[in-house]
């Protein structure tokens, strides 16, 4: 818990910093496939996921090619239904988690499992970022609260089911942090540290 928090947020994080991380994966009205960022903070995570969404929408095998108006040369971007945008989001998150899993297996292992953070919100625990602050290392509540657990999923089929069933979490205020911590857990905490240029950075 202490290592994960340090990797994700650094050691000098403030309550104000964490507030800016209280964001989920939500879409703009236009373009309909664009992720919305309400505060500065998780831009790196959102940019990585947005890149995968754009690739899956326009460049992956069988993707839709944007239509260009011959007279104006303006590209007509598609307008997605909510369910289609959510499907793209889930697909993109799975691609990133799969990459994190495969690149984390530096010892030659061939595990197909994923380890994800699971967060059960409630009346007093609806925001993961605030829990990360109040349960900081060195505080009276250093251990993670009971509403934060991990789940191990055997393969991509199980991951797909889990992602769809947890869409309310992913699109809620704890979505970005939950996903980022899941990437670290799936990649491996020590492997993530080894891959960092500066262990003091985030």
Task: Give me a quick take on this structure.
The protein is mainly α.
Overall form: globular
Q: How many H/I helical runs? A: 9
Query: In total, how many beta strands?
Result: 4
Taking all Cα atoms into account, the compactness measure Rg is 18 Å
Distance between termini?
A: 15 Å
Low-pLDDT stretches are: none
Counting copies of identical and different chains, the oligomeric state is: single chain
The residue-averaged pLDDT reads 81
Instruction: For the largest sheet, list the strands in their spatial order.
Output: 1-2
Secondary-structure element series: HHHEEHEHEHHHH
Portion of residues within helices: 40-55%
**Percent of residues in beta strands:** 5-15%
How does the helix and strand content classify structurally? mainly alpha
The biggest sheet, with number of strands, parallel, antiparallel or mixed sense and barrel status, is: 2 strands, antiparallel
